[in-house]
Amino acid sequence: MTFAALREPRAILWATAGVVTLGFFITLEIAARHYGLPGPMTTQAQEVIFAPKSGPLLYASMALMMVVLTWRQRFIALGAAIGIDVVFVLVRWAVGAKITEGHPFGNGALWVMLGYGVIAVTRRTGRERALLLKGVGLGLLLVAGRKTGDTWLLITSKTRPTVLDEYVATADHALGNPSWLVGRIVRATDPIGTHLLDWVYIQLAVAAVVVSLYQLRNVAVERRFPSHYLVRTFLVIGLVGPAIYMIFPVVGPIFAYGPGAYGTGGLHWAVADLWPHTPPPLNPPHPVPYDDITPRNCMPSLHTAWATAIFIHSRKGPRILRFAGTFWLIATLTATLGFGYHYGVDLIAGVVFTLTIEAALRSHERGWDRSGLQLVAYGTAVFAALLVSYRYLPMEMAKYPWVFGPLLIVAMTSVIYAYVRTTKLWDQKTAPAPQPEPQPELV
User: Fold this and answer.
1) With CB atoms counted within 10 Å of each terminal CB, which end of the chain scores lower, N or C?
2) How far, in Å, CA of 141 to CA of 159, rounded?
3) How far apart are the first and last CA of the chain?
4) Contact indicator for 205, 60 with CB cutoff of 8 Å
5) What pLDDT score does 355 carry?
6) Which residues contact 65 (CB under 8 A, 6 or more apart)?
């Protein structure tokens, strides 16, 4: 690459983004080390040898990387990953290493991604090198996003000793306390319903990869990535969302009003043992002390945000993909409420949050104009108004549910309408003009 090429605006943008990302990872690593735990860079490096936390996620990430490869190269990469995993399993069996957590597979996928990164640097040049590096970076970013999210959750639990669950639970009266209602319904479907919803909830990233693979299906042929696709929205949601956690720390109904989950929280820290059978009483809310283990990861609901992003990006796919996107959204909303991980108002904030980010990313790609600025500004204003109302008007919302309940739904619906209307106009402007059919000529 020449010095002139390095001075191109896009090259400068990518270089700046790389430096900022590296600095962000280093900062999180230092913060995690401060609390005596490994950060995202360390945990990612450990999975080169040790059992990975999520084998399916690593293989899904490798599938994203393979969009830049030919079919022959894909089969070779998949075979190499499986072969490496078989070797790891045999070695662990031979030395008697027991896996107490995580999955016995996935190391092979990580080795293949790292190997293609080395190939890109040493064996490729020009556009082919850049394309392969983008593919490798895309796969590794999905894994790094998961590791970064885990570190963020650790930071929220350590730096926010009090939570605002009483405020959110009080505001949730305006919606009829949906977590309590759906929680009883989900418990009635145990064990089939709970197992299905738990699988959907956990494998959200894999569902995103499926939609992304459809969007990126032509990369190997066209030798370029599309201007906008789901992974970008997914990563931005995961990057920005935890910052809101720090501003509005909430642990969720099952922790604040129930026995807790996953061995954390519990009745010792809960306000009362009420979820899901007894709605919380209507009392003036106040901040509540909580443990330093449970993540403050409720406001907004990022699972709702990610599922909404999957739904949006699946709309232009075939019927089966649209059906899957709709199913994943409905099942995720049911799981977030039914397992007691979120309040109803969290979900409304999550939908508005996603549409605003999606609008900003699309506006950035197509070029900012008045419609894009208005849509992003409106979504941001509605999201801020929701957070302010949850914090400072919860008693009023609970006392007048027939006023504030519809207002919350209208606020969310208005952002949905504005997004659909604006993006539809954008798509009409960018659609290619129909070409006239050739007419027969007289000879």
Assistant:
1) C
2) 26
3) 55
4) yes
5) 96
6) 77, 112, 113, 116, 135, 136, 138, 139, 140
